[in-house]
Backbone:
């Protein structure tokens, strides 16, 4: 069983960790996609068709494959974040964090006092992490607010300076919408490229981990080359759809 400390060890060496997003509420799907070379799988409770109970079963399958389970929570709410961490998610990605106050709220939900306000009750987390020590459990889990709004971009330097953050995670599609470009991943428009560079620089200045969502292994490798250290290169639903489309194209000879 891998723990979040495996990711931290790679970061300490200056390496990038690569992973997937999971939106299908199926533990078996996690066992299928959890192949060698994947460092983390993030169960998506914001846009995926998964909920808290799904996350637990999916995390168990991810754990069993030696991969670190993370989750994107549906909202920046302390009880949601704490409940998911207690259930064994080893880090949270928090959507739509647009200012330092919201970033501090996310940190407080992840960390135990005096660093935060998380309530003690690591029901499954203590089993997964092999300890009930609050320092290990509270400081160990990952806290990654998402930067994906115009306000978040404007205030990214202040957000990145928030004590207790592990990193920032870029949502390229919502960021593109906020820039007036419309939705979509793997963008090349100059204003989007500049926005991504600004967020990366803020992370590097504050010595936190820059993370980003991409739509392809090619873009993931490119972002790692730029300095991103937590990079998502696809998801279970997308891979399933792409595989089916390839098979149908071959079937009909197109």
Residues:
């Amino acid at each position: 069983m891998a723990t979040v400390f495996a990711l931290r060890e790679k970061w300490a060496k200056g390496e990038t960790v690569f992973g997937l997003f999971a939106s299908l509420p199926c533990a078996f799907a996690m066992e299928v996609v959890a192949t060698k070379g994947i460092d983390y799988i993030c169960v998506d409770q914001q846009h995926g068709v998964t909920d808290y109970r799904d996350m637990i079963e999916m995390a168990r399958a991810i754990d069993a494959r030696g991969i670190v389970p993370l989750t994107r929570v549906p909202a920046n709410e302390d009880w949601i974040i704490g409940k998911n961490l207690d259930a064994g998610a080893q880090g949270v990605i928090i959507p739509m964090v647009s200012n330092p106050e919201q970033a501090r709220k996310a940190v407080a939900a992840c960390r135990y006092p005096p660093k935060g306000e998380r309530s003690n009750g690591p029901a499954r987390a203590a089993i997964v992490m092999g300890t009930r020590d609050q320092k290990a459990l509270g400081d160990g889990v990952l806290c990654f607010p998402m930067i994906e709004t115009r306000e978040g971009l404007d205030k990214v330097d202040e957000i990145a300076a928030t004590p207790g953050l592990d990193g920032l995670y870029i949502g390229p599609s919502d960021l593109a919408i906020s820039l007036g470009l419309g939705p979509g991943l793997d963008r090349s428009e100059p204003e989007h490229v500049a926005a991504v560079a600004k967020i990366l620089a803020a992370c590097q200045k504050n010595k936190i981990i820059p993370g980003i969502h991409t739509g392809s292994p090619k873009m993931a490798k490119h972002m790692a080359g730029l300095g991103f250290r937590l990079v998502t290169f696809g998801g279970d639903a997308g891979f399933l759809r792409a595989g089916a489309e390839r098979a149908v194209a071959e079937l009909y000879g197109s």
